[in-house]
Amino acid sequence: MSTPSRERILDGALELIRSGGTISLASTARQVGLTKPGVMYHFPTKEALMLALVDRVMDGWDAQMAARLCAPPEQVPVAERLRAYLDWCLSGEVDETDLVMLTDQRLRATLKERWSARVAPWLTLPEDLPVERRSRLLAVRLIADGVWFADAAGVFAPDPAERARVRAVADALLAD
What we know:
- This protein has helices spanning about 5-20, 25-30, 35-40, 45-65, 80-90, 110-125, 130-155, 160-175.
- By secondary structure, the chain is mainly α.
- Helix 1 packs across helix 2 (about 25-30) and helix 4 packs parallel to helix 6.
- The radius of gyration is 18 Å and the shape is elongated.
- It starts with a helix and ends with a helix.
- The model has no long low-confidence stretch (mean pLDDT about 95).
């Protein structure tokens, strides 16, 4: 169930990440002007808060990538899902919050597990693909991953001309 307070807490926690702050129940409460028990009403533990942040970020990804498809993701071929992922990664619409699964060393395994489960429907390649096709699709995914990480980390992000050239390479790999 989504409530205005719950959404405000998630927004505030993401803003903490964006500004380089440390996420805790107390720091999140301060960020949004609530008491720690007020935050704990919605998120009883830091783990619950962090998992909700992963879900919030992935909900955004899902919506943005699904908007690039002509049908629901589960009804389109894997190459089209990867193209939507590539397009989104090349869009430059990412920031530090997209790295939420890496923000807490103690919870990193749990957060990465949730992240992997949420992104798997977009990126998992069928086992029965011919090796050459599978390798090409994997290369596209890794290209997209690299651009996404560069943008999210703010390190060596490609400029618009480089993005266009990267897209051309990826499009060639996606061609049948």
